[in-house]
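Here's what a typical entry looks like (4-diphosphocytidyl-2-C-methyl-D-erythritol kinase):
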Amino acid sequence: MITVRVPAKVNVQLGVGGLRADGFHDLANVFFAVALGDEVTATESSEGVTLSCSGPDADAVPLDDSNLAARAARLLAAHHGIADPGVHLHIAKAIPVAGGMAGGSADGAAALVACDALWKLETPFETLLELAAELGSDVPFALLGGVALGRGRGEILEPLPVEGTFHWVFAVADGGLSTPAVFRECDRLRDEAGTGSAATDVPTPDADPALLAALADGDAVGLAAALANDLQPAALSLRPALADTLRAGTDAGALGALVSGSGPTCAFLAKDADGAAAVAAALRASGTCRTAHATYGPVPGAAVA
Ligand code: C5P
């Protein structure tokens, strides 16, 4: 039996470029791995690839072949010519489901690492990264962890230097948001703004030098000022109440706030661990979210526990 711990991510910068012919968007995506994470346990099985899930949101997790953990196990087996893979994967779920924190992607990455160890395959890390990119845009980063710039559709990764620890709070909403729907709303808002077509007239985004400097310097105030998410207007358009959540966190003393990825989870940067605990308590009492978690990062990517 092998257990793998895997982090959630927040995008401290999510620059969204034009809509590509393949339906994806070119990104300048600064991923940041946080300690809030899932655990995936792989056990030998003679009944094919099977799944179970525990945790407060377990009912919202699909246990069929659409689950990225099951797809990861099958993809790894196929890569190694294993015709009839057998594994049971148990997901201990702490990452919000459909929350903009890449929880499904994290489970896919964890399943790759867990099955690789269980089946004693010793797949090179570069190959795991390639398989991860086939599974989804955010899966490679869940393998890598730390802080990284993601280009292309997010899968071409460059690790970034970062100093010290940053303290975060995540406000979990009731219900999720569909990532494709949020990207579509982003394109619709851009077309509606009349500044040109979302497909052809959006410049390729780049990482913000001020944000990179704040990460490298361990400067929480500087990072808070540079937080940016091009999907935020779309998430707010689909879920206007998120504006109240963002305001409740900043009113409680957060240094900065933004929607995490495609949302609806909202992320708050705090001065220190005590500040994060205070912001989380205020958010839980505010009635603007289902719950709130204080955590920290960066942390490593998917690894055997
Ligand atoms: O890669 P992944 O399966 O996680 O992407 C889910 C959906 O999010 C894509 O089908 C696409 O609609 C949208 N997406 C995008 N541009 C990206 C990443 C995702 O439009 N760079």
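Residues 166-297 form a domain with the Alpha-Beta Plaits fold (CATH 3.30.70.890).

More examples are in the samples folder.
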